[in-house]
Amino acid sequence: MRLAYQYRLRLTTQQKTTIDRWLELCRRQYNYRLAERFNWYEKNRCDVNACPLVCHLPELKDRPDFYSQKRDLVNSKKLFPEYKELPSHTLQDVIARVEKAFDRWLSGDSNGRRNGKPRFKGQGRFRSIAFPDPVKPEHIDGRFIQLPKIGKLKMILHRPMPDGFKVKTAAIIKKVDGYYITLSLQDLSVPVLTPDVPTLENTIGIDMGLKAFLVDDSGKDEPIPQHYRKAEKRLKRLQRSLSRKKKGSSRRKKAIKRVSKAHLKVSNQRKDFHYKTAKKLLSQGKHVAHEKLNIKGIARGRLAKSTHDAGWGQFLQILSIKAERAGLMAIAVNPSGTSQNCSGCGTKVPKTLKDRLHACPKCELTIDRDHNAAINIKHLAVGHSVNKAQVTSDAVAGVTEKPTSYTDA
Question: Any idea where the Cas12f1-like TNB domain is (predicted)?
Fold first, then answer.
């Protein structure tokens, strides 16, 4: 089992200065290695797909990869001796980040999803350094952890480390309110739990929404906290104050810090709500079925601010991780028709987004729209069909309809 624990650091002034200097050196190295790859890409790509027998195309250069750039770190340390301060594996991790960002832009990840073109890191935009080497047990002494070339760092142990776990990697992260360390813990003796087959008895269906954060198949809802909406008035005031400050001044830096702290508080509140909601769902010991929504598509419309404030993507990611550790599953189902079809008989009951009540004219089932969708999601997760009546009626009439979009679901 692999866990990640994050602790706040209590650093000395000298340690803060060292970490800030290392972050700046890593930022420059990141930009330099990324520029090398961009130069290779611009000089080697060509739109010409045919040429005459005699042509004078420029000779192609070798593509810089992780290993070639890692070998070139020796030259960087000769030209810039300050890079000798950093641990070698920390610099290699910077090149690994460049490799990951560049390859995902060109060819995509394992699922074929491509990211946007990577950008150069501006000053203060490189906020974390990694120590990929495992931390030995003798280098952890109570509240202190010893890292290479920086010495002992004091942590605030707000929760103890689990027994039997070894620290595989460590990463120091700089946030607006201080410095944090994230420890990756692993224990191979912990068995991997095999989840049971989803059934109607051991599965919960939830429907995500903006009126309520979620509604389960029993009709219970979780109110949506709207952390950003509540902090929006104060954020506007802080942003107006920031816009009046002269660029480059010390007062502008202080104003930027105030705005960043306000946004960080909203982010922490949202994440805390997501963790507590996921724990409440999984404490019942049942699988959780949810819609596989196109969140990026929804966030492009008029509900963008409310969608981002709800944070569905972060919640579903947390729910999936916590369910796996509990030996359960977070099952994503196709949302098409989950709100339109009746959960009692399967008849299609057309609705618009403003219609919040489901009233079936055939079986006379009258419940909340989200409650009806949660029941349908649960049935789909266990392999049951919720639109048998619709399929039968369409086959008799000889009509084929397109599936509903995510906005109608």
Answer: 312-377
